[in-house]
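User: Hey, my collaborator sent me this sequence without any context and asked if I could get a structure. I don't really work with proteins. Can you help?
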Amino acid sequence: MTAPPGSTGRDARLAPLITTLMALYARPEGNWLSVASLISLMADIGAEPQAVRSSISRLKRRGVVLSERSRGAAGYTLAPETLEVLAEGDVRIFERRRARAEDGWLLVVFSVPESERDKRHALRTSLTRLGLGTAAPGVWVAPGNLEAEARHTLERRHLTGYVDMFRGEYLAFGDPRDKVRAWWPLDELTGLYAEFLDRYRPVLDRASSGTDPREAFATYVPMLTHWRRLPYRDPGLPLSVLPAEWAGEAAGALFDELDQVLGPLAHEHAMAVVHGDDRSATA
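Assistant: No problem. I've predicted the 3D structure and written it out in structure-token form, which is a compact way to encode the shape of the chain:
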């Protein structure tokens, strides 16, 4: 992700970390974290309090989080739509359901009037986020097992009036593996997976030798933030249409190990901060 220099760029880079942190530790706590706890936890990742406050303000303006007082302190809660999106994302991030050849293909065809460009943008954004590939202008394709997720997303965003959906088999003409390379940016995905592997294999080696909860937390939240965009770029295509030794398999296995090693320790540290800090703050 790129951003212009200056405080706005720093805020933009902090926003995904704050969202990850809230998803991990606010939801189990009644969907609420105090300002003091959030700032303290973000400091453990290396973020300055003022930058955190500025980024939170931007998240509030976007409707991602809401201000709410609880237990005598100022704090934040995730907006209802954010909670729904995160719940859907949990499946993508932690389960990564890979399609099989027998699942067939899902086709999504849309047509949006020129006068409703905002809807066209919303449709493209939604389909891209689901990991659909582009077969032709206005024709998007995905493994057949994404039907329910695609249907739910389009219904939630009130976009069904512009869309038709079909399921079927690829009959002709050409090798499906070549078509998949044309429909999805596999080389880019391979590079993103390779970057994750190169960056976090050494982290797993160090963590497996022993790490304390605070260090685990400072590693786990950025790692999960890095990882969580990848399952949305990769729709879980059948291995039969992917290059041999698909890097996504090795990267997914590495993520699972990091989650098992670092996740519990990170949670221990976060809960110590959340339950050990009853100071109030304002933002």
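In plain terms: Confidence is low (pLDDT under 50) at residues 1-9, 278-283. You can pass these tokens on to your collaborator as they are.
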